[in-house]
Amino acid sequence: MRLQDQLCFPLYACSKEVVRRYAPLLDPLGLTYTQYICMMVLWEEGEATVSHLGERVLLDSGTLTPLLRKLEEKGYVTRERGIRDARQLIVRLTPEGRELERRAASVPRGMLQCVDLSIGEAAELKRLLLKVLGQLRQDQH
């Protein structure tokens, strides 16, 4: 039972460090890392239900609700009840939220400068992380 022999520790430490490195890139945009990943889904899709957004970013509605409220206060999104199903809460980008995508375009490049991985190494790392994540999430069901 040595820390250096455990897979969990480098995963934890790397995740924490990656989020820390995002902060100076996201601070000028007024976003936290979690807000940023939610905005990325909305930039892809334009709108999403809170439940769909939660599935995409692996967060529960209790975590998403205050996060989305802050994004709405900043003018980046609106939240509205569904017309067909009032139980659904639909999150939509505002024009300001769409404009934020243009301002955030430099964030991925900034993160790439933090690590020295080839395209192949980055693809392999992503593949392995998604494999582990998929297996761990499958065990939940």
UniProtKB/TrEMBL annotation:
Record flagged with keyword Cytoplasm: yes
SMART domains per the UniProt record, alphabetical: HTH_MARR
Domain HTH marR-type stretches: 4-134
Signal sequence region: none
A GO MF term: DNA-binding transcription factor activity
Any one biological process term the GO annotation gives: response to stress
Main location: cytoplasm
Record flagged with keyword Cytoplasm: yes
A GO term from the CC aspect: cytoplasm
PROSITE patterns cross-referenced by the UniProt entry: HTH_MARR_2
Swiss-Prot/TrEMBL keywords: Cytoplasm, DNA-binding, Transcription, Transcription regulation
Location in the cell: Cytoplasm
SUPFAM superfamilies found in the cross-reference section: Winged helix' DNA-binding domain (SSF46785)
Top-level division of the source organism's lineage: Bacteria
Protein name in the entry: MarR family transcriptional regulator
